[in-house]
Amino acid sequence: MLVDFELIKRAQTGDSAAFNEIVLAYRKRILGTITRLIARPEDVEDVAQEVFLRLYFSLDQLRTAEVFEPWLHRLTVNAAYDYLRKQRRRQEFRMSDLSEQQVMLADAAAGGKVEHDEQRRKRVRESVQSLLGAVSEADRILLVLKEVEGLSLKELEKVYKVNENALKVRLFRARQRVLKAYESAVAREATGQSR
Amino acid sequence: MNSMRGNVDARLDALLRAYREACPTPEPSANFMPDLWQRIESRQSFTFSLQRMASAFVTAALALSLALGVYMSIPRSNPASYSQSYLEALADANTLDIPDYVSPVRLELSDTGR
What we know:
The structure holds two protein chains of two kinds. By secondary structure, chain A is mostly helical. Chain A has nine helices and no strands. In chain A, helix 5 (about 100-110) packs across helix 6. Chain B is elongated and about 120 Å long. The mean pLDDT of chain B is about 80. The chains are: A mainly alpha, B mainly alpha. Chains A and B meet through helix 2, helix 3, helix 5, helix 6 and helix 9 of A and helix 1 and helix 2 of B.
């Protein structure tokens, strides 16, 4: 834990300086997680602020120190979920949006072949975003937390408050859907190359 | 088939690893904290005005209930038709030209059948 419970208790009593310290301690971690969850750099700060806003107004409900981090994670997940749902309404990410070239370049990037660094990163981001569009927002977040953020099943259990088996099933299904989407993109890429 | 699937699996894992590297943690902007506090304050003022509206509504509802209670408890000079009791009203309505349905039945027995 990056802060001690005394600081949280002070923030609960309305101490703004204590709340500031909590935000400063967790800000970078939350920004990183949100970046990988939503992959839109221009909106990351906005979503992170929403997380801390929700933290501020629900801090008085916190009773024990151990639940603080899973709880903050849950607030992050919920804020990212709300954002992604709004985004989906605006723009549908579909597997068909993933061009053959994107798949090829993403594979090349993943394999370490390079062109320009920033270009490559951008393409990887776009490719993964398109692939993650094949699953629901909830599954997409779960998948990113597990596969990209590297959260353990035990940690996810605390965040989602469901048992490990249920999580495993959801993760397996989500991964299968993404794999299927990836396979079709790879197949299209292969067809495109053979022409 | 399985090896192909395994290959795709491994490629997807590699892509997800590359994704983590492709999304480095951004540095928070200088306005992060001021903007956050601004949002907190605007939410607080919204909540506060909502609370004020709710309490004003409750006060108005209480005042209205009280006024209605007072209004209902004031005795009024009622019109004549309402000053009669139920039995009086029934007697007035039961005038002579209306047959008395509840008068005893009279049986006239004759000896013709004997």
